[in-house]
Structure of Hydrolase TatD:
Amino acid sequence: MRIFDPHIHMTSRTTDDYQRMHAAGVRAVVEPAFWLGQPRTNVGSFLDYFDALLGWEPYRAAQYGIHHHCALALNPKEANDPRCAGVLAELPRYLLKDSVVAVGEVGYDSMTAEEERAFEAQLALAQENDLPVLVHTPHRDKAAGTRRTLDVVRAAGIPPVRVLIDHLNEMTVGMVADSGCWMGFSIYPDTKMDPDRMVALLKEYGTDRMLVNSAADWGRSDPLKTRQVADVMLAAGFGEDDVDQVLWRNPVAFYGQSGRLDLAAGSEAGPDYAGNTIKRG
Ligand SMILES: [Zn+2]
C-alpha cells in the first residue's frame, strides 16, 4: 500500500514518526506552512521557517524514504498580526521554488477583515504562479465559514479544480462537493473526523476529489491516521484500487497541477522505494 499524506506538519514531529510512517506505507507528504503555537513577531521568522520547509525538512524526510514537498503562505491566524503582513511581499520569490506545490494554508480562522484580505491576495498569487491552493476552514462556526470561503474562491475566479477545501466534516462536505473544489478531511484522535466517519462519507460521496490527511502537528494528532482510514476502507468493502485512489492518486493529481511534484525513485529514496515510476503527477 502506498500513501501520500497531503497535509502534515512534520516540523513538529520526530524522526520516530518518519520511521513509523514509512513502515505504514507513507511515501510522500505535503507540509503546508502554518502557525507554530508561539506567535511570530517579524517577517524574518517566517522566512527562516519557509527555508526549513524547503531545505531541512525534505532532507530529513528523505533519510526515511519519504518525498517531502511544501505549500507556502501567510497562515490565517497570523494574518491578523500587522507585524507579519510583510510576508505577502516576500511570498512571490518563494513560490518560484521547485518543491513548492501549492499556496497554503490560507483561508479563515476567526473570519476577520485582515484574514479576508490575506486570503484574497494569496488566491491571486496562486493564479499568477499557476499553483493550486490549500484552504483551511475555521473550526468554530464551520458551516458559515465554509460557505463564505467558497464565495471568496468563486469571486477570485480561480478554477475550482485547483482548490482544496480542507478540514471538512458531515456538515460541510456537501457544499464543497457541489462547488467542484477538492474535498479534504483531517482525521484526528478525538476531534473532527475519525476513520469510521470518514469511510461513511466515502460511501456516500464516492472517492473522486476526496483527500484524507492526518494534519498531524504539535497538538494531539497521529501521523498514522491515513493508514487507519485505508484499513477501515478495506474492512468496509472498498477495494485496493479505491484505497490507492484516495490515499495516493488523488493527492498526486491535485498537487501534480503545480507541475512540480517529483516522486521519482532516486538516490534520496529509501530502500523500499525501488520500482515506483510515477513522476510529476
Ligand atoms: Zn494544518
